[in-house]
Amino acid sequence: MLKKIDIYIIKKFIGTFFFAIILIISIAIVFDITERIDDFIEKEAPLSEIIFDYYMNFVPYFVNLYSALFTFIAVIFFTSKMAYNTEIIAILSSGVSFLRLMLPYLLSAIIIALFSFILNSYIIPPANKNRLEFAEKYLKNPYRNYDKHIHKQILPGVYMYMESYSTTTHTGQLFSLEKFEDKKLVSKLTSDYIKWNKETKKWDIYNYFIRHIDGLDERFEKGKKIDTSLTVKPKDFSSRLNIVETMNIHELNSFIEQQKVRGASNIESYLIEKYNRIAYPFSTFILTLIGVTIASRKVKGGIGLHIGLGIAISFSYILFMRFSSQFAINGSLNPLVAVWLPNIIFVFVGYISYRIAPK
Q1: Whole-angstrom Cα distance, residue 64 to residue 116?
Q2: 132 phi and psi, to 5 degrees?
Q3: Do the beta carbons of residue 116 and residue 65 sit within 8 Å?
Q4: What is the pTM assigned to this prediction?
Q5: d(CA 51, CA 18)
Q6: Range 232-237 average pLDDT
Q7: I need a labelling partner for 68 at 20 to 30 A (CA). Which of 28, 226, 246, 285 fits?
Q8: Dihedral, 326, 327, 329, 335 alpha carbons, nearest 10
Q9: Gap between the Cα atoms of 9 and 82, Å rounded
Q10: How far apart are alpha carbons 213 and 204 in whole angstroms?
Q11: CB of 302 within 8 A of CB of 84?
């Protein structure tokens, strides 16, 4: 059964958390409008799209991006006030252990972690889709694919190659398609170029030459034009890496499996996005633990020192997380390890802080 003091702390925690969100988001939106107002005017973005397609979808993205910081600030702020009002001392003096004092904090952290997970997995992806579409239309230059010598495995044993791809005309130059069975080449198609047909929703292959191989027997086929159904679509060459931000957790899992089959080279960045959707909400518990142990005692410098220390620790966590993710993208670290390493290290920091705090 929750006691009055538990309900009191939970209300303080959740209330301060959402107050911090509203305050910081308001400031962030003002700065963002100031920065982008010239682009809005130049591209003649409608006011309704600015509000509903961009900023209404910007809010959940921003909330989740800095939820760890908001959590830490909330814990530090109201716990520090309780400490300087001698409320913490009164609670502990009444026979409540420090571990029992942590209960309402952990319950609040569960609520915020679930809130973050649901946002990250189901609400933010469709919101990101509208936000990113707005950004592509009014804030960024049209995407261009500058990749050269594009290799993709589109099915098990089936490989395609293009020298280059134009996102404007949806055309790939010097296209080839190879099919292997039992590690032996059974057919190879080469052509001058391949182009997406919007009407048939298929690829048209121009000036093609096909070589069919059956042991020592070979058969040749050539022509001016042929259409084919490939598992790749123009969006596979016309999308920025942040396309995964528009997928819910189930779509992301399917997309990763598809990319593995195709032999994609940047699979690490997709795995990092997947693992982050679980690891990042978990950080709420760690930062809550550290925040309580820091702010529950009186120190010289008052609440300001607690808040300053809390912000420094939360930013060091976020910075460490970015660094470890970059190592994974570069192939120096396993993506799962890279994502969870900051949590593992800060768990030890939290445990040491917890052991020291009651003393």
Answers
A1: 6
A2: -70, -35
A3: no
A4: 0.73
A5: 21
A6: 78
A7: 246
A8: -110
A9: 10
A10: 23
A11: yes
Does the pLDDT of residue 211 top 70, yes or no? yes
pLDDT digits (tens, 9 = 90+) for 163-180: 888 877 888 889 999 998
Helices 98-118 & 267-295 angle (0-180, nearest 10): 150
Instruction: Spell out the SS3 assignment of 30-76.
Output: HHHHHHHHHHHHHCCCCHHHHHHHHHHHHHHHHHHHCHHHHHHHHHH
Whether the CA torsion 302, 87, 108, 354 is positive or negative: it is positive
β-partners of residue 164 are 148, 173
**Residue 163 neighbours by CB under 8 Å, 6+ apart:** 148, 149, 150, 172, 173, 174
CA distance readout (Å), 313 to 159, 165, 215, 310: 48, 45, 65, 5
What pLDDT was estimated at residue 301? 59
| Rg of the chain, C-alpha, whole Å | 27
β-strands 184-197, 171-181 pairing: antiparallel
Residue 344 CA to residue 349 CA, distance in Å, equals 9
